[in-house]
Amino acid sequence: MNTPFNGDRLRKARIYRGLTVAELAERVGCQRQTLSMYEISKSQPTDKTTVASLAQELDFPVKYFYEHSNAFASGTVYFRSLLTTNKKYRSEQIVKMDYLSQIYSLLQDYVAFPEYEPFDLPDNVTPEQAAYALRDAWGLGKGPVDNLVSVVEQHGILVTSFSTSTNDVDAFSQFMGAADTPTYIIAYSNNKTSAARIHFDIAHELGHICLHEWSEDIEDISKEEFKLKEREANDFAAAFLLPEVTFRKDAERGPQTITYYKQLKKKWRVSIAAMIRRSEKLGIISTDDYQNLIRVMQRRGLRKEEPLDDILITASPALLKTSVIMLLQENIFSPTEFMEELSRSYGLSINATEVEYLLDLPTGTLAIPRIIEFPSLQIKRNNN
What is the mean pLDDT of each run of 10 residues along the chain (384 residues)? Predict the structure, then answer.
């Protein structure tokens, strides 16, 4: 019995490449309605040429379109820019995380990853209290966090950076796995390189992980409820990165100027805008003072790019990429064997370059050597 064409795989590959049904149909020379029928499995391609054209245009192996994936169960996805980001871009990142979860399921079977340990918080806990509770649980004290990416990974939360064709997607987080073994992944745009911006994005997603429900569909909640969740995640991030007892001493020690907050940025690795907002919330400066400082930043063109953004950097995510490199170095897999295992046992036949992209691996890590054919070459045989 022939394996049927998997229409959902076609839909995901199209979304992965950021194409509409109409755009893909035009590229492969078929009717939009026909392609839609393929995607919802109401119809099947009747010839191999059509599938080959789809595979070539989408840059996925033909085998991919006949597989049934074994993805982790996943919950909601929290996007920081949900209200301003086109759904097309959100869908593209969700599909990428779906594929990443399948790769992770392979890695998890061979590598002992750090496990995330949830901790109970009271129902009426404030974001600030939750932030301090997490700091205590992770033994971070009350000072600055120099490398939040590494801290998060050490405590069992996966982190990856991603490329995007829009700046509207800052970061997002997703739940994977089961309730007894929760796994979360935080993804942030690699359009950002400043430690201050990356740290706040990651701390914001930590707020969602600690404070919010992960079984609901974020697309179904009201705008007001979403805005509330975002405010809570922002308050969590500010308190987590700038604990009141220590940050207050630093902020009150000097003049309330952009120049002074620039000096504080070197220590706390948090943006000037976030620090003056935190100062206003803690009553260190008045609302009028806060607004005046924001206006100064606006006049100086510092709202989009602050001082030190090009100097303060943080480590890149390492947990996922290191696990792959370790498997290769320990000869558990060759690059070819790794890709074959992903296809055979985990139902995901994709190109090695896509795995490198999703895990931010160095280009060529999983490259499969190509054999150049020389018909004139022959093995020497011993005729004796």
Answer: 85 94 94 94 89 96 87 64 65 87 92 89 93 96 94 94 67 74 84 86 94 76 86 96 97 95 96 96 96 95 90 88 94 95 94 92 80 53 58
Domains within the chain, CATH numbers bracketed: 7-66 (1.10.260.40), 74-241 (no CATH)
Among 47, 80, 261, 265, residue whose Cα is nearest residue 170: 80
Residues 190-193: contacts with CB under 8 Å, at least 24 apart: 190/161, 190/162, 190/163, 190/360, 191/163, 191/164, 191/167, 193/309, 193/310, 193/313
Specify whether the CB–CB gap between 356 and 103 falls below 8 A.
no
Give residue 14's identity as a one-letter amino acid code.
R
CA dihedral (65, 70, 76, 77) in degrees, to 10, reads -60
- Count of CB atoms situated within 10 Å of the CB of 123: 4
156: left (phi over 0), alpha (psi -120 to 50) or beta: left
Residue type, 221: I
Residues 6 or more apart whose CB falls under 8 angstroms from that of 181 comprise 115
| Span 70-93, pLDDT tens digits | 655 566 777 765 455 577 778 888
What are the structure tokens assigned to 193, written together? 């390189």
φ and ψ of 84, to 5 deg: -115, -15
Residue found by looking up tokens 């035009």 in the block: 26
In DSSP terms, 78 is beta-bridged to 173
Structure confidence by residue, pLDDT tens digits, 128-177:
999 999 999 999 999 999 999 999 999 999 998 877 665 666 788 888 76
